[in-house]
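quick one before i forget lol
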Amino acid sequence: MSKVGKIERILIFRLSSIGDIILTSALIRCLRNTYPLAQIDFVVKSQFVQLVESNPNISTVYGFESKKGFSELKRLRNQLVENNYDVFLDIHKNYRSLFFRSAFKNAVVLKYKKNIFKRTLLVSFGINRYKNELPVYRRFIEAAKSIGVEYDGRKTDFFVPDNAKQSFSAIALAKQFNVSKQYVAIMCGASFENKKWPKENFKVLVQRLTDINIPVVLVGGKSEIQDTEFIAEGFSETDVFNFTGVLDLLQTAALLKSATLTVSNDTGMLHLSEALGVPVVGIYRYNG
């Protein structure tokens, strides 16, 4: 274990993205198991605060308004230094986290192993150098191993608040969508073009599912609207329900929680479904 005294205050730094923030949930749970009385706080971009604020293992969530730039990051850093954290967990490991953690002189700073070179080889060139590699959520936990944190054998989790369930139910009712029936959720978007399965393929998949009377739900943000409209075109509104651009993150989680299956590119929705205990089919592509 690291040479650190009594641990009472822990700060986790992970600004983005949706999937990576969700993957921190196992680390947060294991930290809480090890330090049940500790203050465990989290720094994240403001637009992703929803993803962690309902987690009962988190004490306080601090949103970073990235649009305000460096001055806002500095202001937030100066504010949080006053909390006298015992441990700073850098789960982002970029220039912002380096700047942020540099002010925490009295804290034990822990970082996770990012494996940038291996990831670049795989994503950009199709060269796989991963051998017996721990999944990302396990590597997050490994970052805290030196302070006695151990893996509890469980994967990620996600907590959907009641108000999100209720608001989604109201939207579903307005669309005449029956949440209690079997359905497959599909997410066709991705943060990078080379991660996207062609929309034409998704349309074929939807056809095959509806042919065997399995309703399909399309989810995603406003940037996916054009693609999901293409996919939904020609299908009955009772077979394909398009919620793209309609739901916020927590309402989407409420929808996914009741799905029979999620089919998704390598996106946050895939990790969200896994955290909710929903079976997933992940589609992974690379520039090859």
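fyi Residues 9-147 form a domain with the Rossmann fold fold (CATH 3.40.50.2000).
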